[in-house]
Structure formats: C-alpha cells, structure tokens
Amino acid sequence: MPGTTVPTPPLRSLLGEAPASDRTRWLTSRLVALTTEGRLPPGTRLPSERRLAEELGLSRGTVVHALDAARDRGVLAARQGSGRVVRAARDGAGPVESLTARPGALPAGSIDLRATVLPPHPRLHEVAGEAVDTITDDPAWGSVPAEGLPELIDEICAHYGRRGLPTTPDQVLVTTGAISGLHLALRTVTSPGARVGTENPGYPNTARVITAARRRVVPLDVDPLDPGALGSGALRPGAAHGETLVRAIGSGALDAAVLTPDFHNPGGRLLGDADRSRLLREAARTGTPLIIDETLAGMAWRPGVLPPAPTASHGAATLLVGSVSKMLWAGLRIGWIRTSRELADSLSRIRLGVDLGAPLLEQRITARLLAGDSAVPAQREHIAATYEVASAGLCELLPHWRWREPDGGLSIWAGGTRRPAAELVRAAGERGVALSPGALFSPSGTGWPHALRIPFSGRADDLRRALEVLAELES
Ligand SMILES: Cc1ncc(COP(=O)(O)O)c(C=O)c1O
C-alpha cells in the first residue's frame, strides 16, 4: 500500500507522553485511537520499529508487541519491510470508549458537576399550567404533525427572523433535543463511513452521534491548552480555533462537519464574524455540509459580547441544530433543525423512521416561552454570578491551573492539573464531587489527561465547595 511516512516528532506529540508502566498497552490503545479518529489516515506509513523505539524512549520489544497488538485489532496492516502501514477501518466506525452511557445515581448530598444544567426559565411553571389547560380543548385530540406543532414552528421562524435569518415553516423540523437533531442531520447529508470533522476537545455526545451513525470522527484540534505542555508549566498556545476549522473545511477532505461555533463546549469560545464568513465560504467552495450545533448560541451572558448571528450564508449547505435545553429548561427535550427546503424534505422522510414527532405539551410550552424571546438567556444574572465564583475560586485556590476566559457558554476548560485528571476526578468523587475528566472531551477518550471541564451553570455554593475539594486534592 503506498503512503507517506509520518515524521516521528508529530507522531510523538500525537501519542502523548508514555506512562511509567504498562507501556505496551498504552502504545496499542493510542495507535488504535489515532487511526480510528482518522488522525493517522489509511495508507500512513509509521517509522521503523527501531526509530520508533528510539524516539519514544521505549524498548524495541515494547514497540513490536504494541504494533502487533494494533495489527490484531485491525488498524495496522501486516509488517512490510521495516515499517507498518495504517489500514482503512473495517466498518468506518470506531468505539468511543470514554462515554459512560448510564452514569448512575450519586450518593445523597453529592455535588454533581458532570453536566451544564441551568435552573428552569422563570415563567416555566405558569406557562406549563396554561399548556395543560388546553388539553381537552384540542380538536385534534393531541395528534401533532411529525415535523412539529405549527405554532412552535412559527415561533422558531420568528426566532431566526429576529437573528437576521429569514426562515419559512417548510425549512424547520422540530426534534427531541439537539442530539436527535444532530443525528438526523448527519444521516441526511452523509453516508455510512463518511469522514465527519468535529472539534477536539468537544461535547462528548457529538462524537457519540457520529460513531453511532457509523460515520468516522475526524478530530479538529482546537485546544488552546497544548497537551504536551500541560502540567509542565510551559503553556504553548494551540493553533487558532477559527483557523483550524477554516483549514479543515477548506481542505475538502471532509464529507461533513459538526461544529459548535457559538460558545463552544467545553471552552466557551465564540467564533468571530470574520472566521465565520470564511468558514461558510470554504464550505460552499468545497461542497462540505455544515451541521451547526446552536445549543449554546443563546448563552451570551457577558456584558459586551453580542449574541452571534446564525452560521448560514454565502451559499453553504447548513443545518442549524437548535435546542431549548439551556435557554428554557433541560426537561423539555425540544430542539429543531433549520435548513434549506430541499434538505428539510429529506430530513422529514428520514425522521419518520425514527419517531413520529416530539411530545405535544412540551412543544406547546416551548412555543409560548420562545414567543418574543430575547437572544440573552433569562438566567443571565445567575450565570454571570456563578462564573464569578468559578473564576475567583480558580485564581485563589488553583493558581497553577491554566484556563482561558470563556466568551460565553457554561463552562471553563482548565488544564495543568498536577495529578492526572482521571485520578483527580476519582478522588473528588470519593469526596462527594462528581466531575468530567478532560479525556471525556476527546473522541478517543484518551486525550487531555491533565484537563477538566468546570461548569458554572449550577449552584454557586456547590461550585465553591467543589473547587475547595479539588484544591485540597491538588495540594
Ligand atoms: C454543545 C451541546 N450540544 C448538545 C447538547 C445537548 O442538547 P440537548 O439536551 O438538546 O439534546 C449539549 C448539552 O450540554 C451541548 O453542550
């Protein structure tokens, strides 16, 4: 098989630092992860065993065993001469081993910082009551068109109108939250085995959606905290977030991308207007459909940070996936897709094989709460105050951690933990504080070993207590 040899220094930084023990297993799992993610594409020739051993500071025996194990797991071809070549994945989908599907209940009194959940919209109780009162008056006896309740679709069109993107009802499909929207969008614009770019680090369930749909995750590295430098005190800035995305789309090597340009999870980065336009132009030029996760688009709580315009223009095929999980209430489980009429037609057909629509009451409540929405979340004061607790606590209690101020959103991405993040999270769990380690935010489940996500959406007291526990564990 032809292919270029990957030079050793980039391979070394892709692999990360070898642990003190169990190095064969470590090298095998890193090679499997990198090939599955597409970071070592099929046809790539690895350096010779001798070179690899020298460069990685491992024994030749360790390298040979690891390469053989990676071959047995189907990601490397049998040995040819002195090097090994990456094989095409057998079914185009690799496991996302990092995700715990059923995280389980925490002991009473625990502080749960694993998700970014906000208090419900202040008018939820009143509006839910009104929606219940309409049940028996409904002439359709509760049956709803699969594409969505017309009154909600009208409000979604108005929501985009206010954000400067004229939208008609036949461009909208209501879904059960953003995740089902991402899944439907992906199935509409790609086929099994497709190469789908997404940010790394990124929201863990995005990678899960891509692999569950039997597409391949192509991680787009957007981390400002370079993993090679974390923990060593010498922080190097990573490649600029926008530039990475623009280049990836401009390369034409992706079949689609699922991106979160609006207050990216976990780091809260907002893509600037210029990068957004370049991204859309490159998507149009290369014919790469963009699935834009707008779940956090309303989370513009910082004074002076304007809510972003929708990522749609310049002739690019875009599927905007919205959700009310943050801006109204996580319990509603309502989302939508806004796209072209043609794609909305295809989406509707595919959707009928998935479910027959989102629940009526939740759609009605959403329609009423969305009416006249401002782009700023109702919980703006709560978020700004909790963020203050997070940032002050990090500076005071964990001054050796590195993090960048978020532009908005609901979490801080912090690196530079003294102990490996997985170990820190385990120890914090024993002290009643549940957190997500950095590895959860990499598609392979093995990246960012010294990083954590700190959400600031919950209760301020809990957050302060959690930071105190982390500081004790890090001292
Ligand atoms: C970027 C992003 N997308 C999607 C979701 C999940 O959205 P939903 O609850 O609407 O499925 C989240 C939740 O935190 C998120 O941060």
Label this structure with key terms:
alpha/beta; Arc Repressor Mutant, subunit A; Aspartate Aminotransferase, domain 2; globular; 11% strand; 15 helices; 5-stranded mixed beta sheet; 7-stranded mixed beta sheet; 475 residues; binds pyridoxal-5'-phosphate
CATH architecture of the largest domain: 3-Layer(aba) Sandwich
- Return the structural class: alpha/beta
Q: Can you say what the CATH homologous superfamily of the largest domain is? A: Type I PLP-dependent aspartate aminotransferase-like (Major domain)
Can you count the beta strands? Answer: 12
Structure commentary:
This protein is of the alpha/beta class and 475 residues long. The protein folds into three domains: 8-72, Arc Repressor Mutant, subunit A, CATH 1.10.10; 111-120 and 378-474, Alpha-Beta Complex (Aspartate Aminotransferase, domain 1), CATH 3.90.1150; 124-370, Type I PLP-dependent aspartate aminotransferase-like (Major domain) (Aspartate Aminotransferase, domain 2, 3-Layer(aba) Sandwich), CATH 3.40.640. 37% of the residues lie in helices and 11% in strands. It has helices spanning 8-15, 23-36, 49-56, 60-72, 124-133, 150-162, 177-189, 204-212, 241-250, 273-286, 341-351, 360-370, 380-397, 421-430, 460-474; strands at 111-113, 172-175, 195-200, 216-221, 256-259, 290-293, 318-323, 335-338, 402-403, 411-415, 433-437, 451-455. It is globular. The N and C termini lie far apart (51 Å).
